[in-house]
Amino acid sequence: MSCSAHVDSFARDHLPPPEQWPELIFELPYLHYPERINAATELLDGAVARGWGERTAIRAPAGTLSYRELLAQANRIARVLVEDMGLVPGNRVLLDGCNTAMMAACWFGILKAGGIAVAVMPMLRARELAQVIDKARISHALCDAPLGAELAAAQAGCPTLTRVLHFHDPAGGLEAHMAGKPAAFADVSTAADDVALIAFTSGTTGKPKGTIHFHRDLLAICDCFPRSTLRAEPDDIFCGTPPLAFTFGLGGLLLFPLRIGASTVLVERLTPEGLLHTVEDYRATVCFTAPTFYRMMASQARRHRLDSLRRCVSAGEALPVATRQAWQDATGIALIDGIGATEMLHIFISAADADIRPGATGRAIPGYRATILDNEGRQAPADTVGRLAVKGPTGCRYLDDERQREYVVDGWNLTGDAYRRDADGYFWYHGRTDDMIISAGYNIAGPEVEDVLLGHDAVAECGVVGVPDEERGQVVHAFVVLAPGHTGDAAMVAELQDWVRRHIAPYKYPRAIVFLPGLPRTGTGKLQRFRLRELGTSGTADAPSHA
Asked: What gap in Å lies between CA 466 and CA 371, rounded to an integer?
């Protein structure tokens, strides 16, 4: 590895050993980056240097920011981090906020100062925030003021987090600190393989996994899928729903447009109807969202002026053929399907335009290779269902986590997806090989929901699985054995659902709860999740079920 610019070496010190890394390939000439590069410098300062300073970078309900204005904001934030909050290169900075221009400016400011951005979903509760803070030993935080209560509750039990500033705070906060700062900043000259980002994913156990990505990785995802498949243009206006804390949203709604001089629309929270209005109001041309949203928007599309749209990207969960067809019938636009992973940073299999085959995700995009492995780790013949394996310029590097050995095998990244590859190199999705529940684009770990349910006095045992759902891909089903003295009725369902929503992000709550006299287990006592999935799919059980 290169000589690091980080004074705080925690992230580099806790990378997996090199022999556990995936094979990284940089076969394309434009993926060869200088030894020293700061992604924020390249994307913002570079944009102004290329003459894009007066172009619009961010559009939002509160107004617009040009590239020059966004650069000035990020520079002032970097100064606040260094001069007022004592940040040194390599410190981890929690970034807790919705999709706003200030959230984007903070993200760039962190990288400019040599910090490591750890963005989190704005729906996370104190319990979940504390897990992230502890795992990454976070010392600094920039937080959207309305989310401050949950962060304060988490901070109370996290001694490493000592410096917090809020933005969008009418009492002052970050903006007050920025007011007196010059608009220039000397960016830290980070190595291309210095850590820029730690993105957290729950995994199947509910224990957060921090996926480590370098400065060069952020540029590589901009120079792969957007260049070969999306083929966006400088006059495009991007929009969509994924939070900037998701790597899907970070790429699609921030990095990709800024890499080419385009603009992005950032709106805090969007419903399907709200996204349609956003396209109409901003004349957006490129849209990123999950299949669930496309399905729900299709029935309303004809009531909106969507003729500005030209590229629509679907990812986050499998795209049903019916959803693809419904959207195309309503808008005339063929969805660009794609699969990515937090561990890989963004999309690595996709297809667009004439290359689309309905039902198939697509082919490995230029810069990546993909194959199917059997249970023995051998490459499987065509049309054989097996484990999806991929490699490219990005790859899995977990932060101090033994699960690295499970995700990377013989140089391949194993995504946890079951696929088959046909003779033409197209990949067809067949499900998950682990217990991750993917619902409306969100990753939900069943064991995490179980842990919360077990904290309720009425719950003696429980098991949580994902059950197929036409609109959301999967929904969370909980199977509960009640403690003596409690009744499994609709009131208890509502009580347990509300309990989960209060303790973890609301999107993780079980949409259906089935009460059972006992859970199916093996002779050694291991929970048989496949039996629960069968019960959920059939809709039958030996006890009342309430949705």
From this structure: 26
Sheet order of strands, 63-66 included: 63-66, 56-60, 263-265, 237-240, 286-289, 311-314, 336-340, 347-350, 363-364
269 CB neighbour count, 10 Å cutoff: 11
Task: Let me know whether 241 and 288 are in one domain.
Answer: yes
Task: Give the range of the structural domain holding residue 349, as residue numbers without chain letter.
Answer: 226-434
Q: Is residue 480 part of a domain?
A: yes
| CATH number of domain containing 339 | 3.40.50.12780
* SS3 of residue 371 by DSSP: strand
> Total domain count for the chain?
2
Average pLDDT over residues 172-193: 96
| 259 domain-assigned | yes
Whole-prediction pTM value? 0.87
Phi, psi for residue 393 in degrees, rounded to 5: -75, -15
Can you give the CATH number for the domain in which 494 is found?
A: 3.30.300.30
- pLDDT tens for 362-408 read 999 999 999 999 988 999 999 998 999 999 999 999 999 999 999 99
Q: Are 87 and 93 in contact (CB under 8 A)?
A: yes
If you write DSSP's letter for every residue of 50-83 in order, what string do you get?
TT-TTSEEEEETTEEEEHHHHHHHHHHHHHIIII
pLDDT beyond 70 at 294:
yes
What's the rounded Cα separation, in Å, for the pair 339 and 348?
6
Give the three-class secondary structure for 12.
Answer: helix
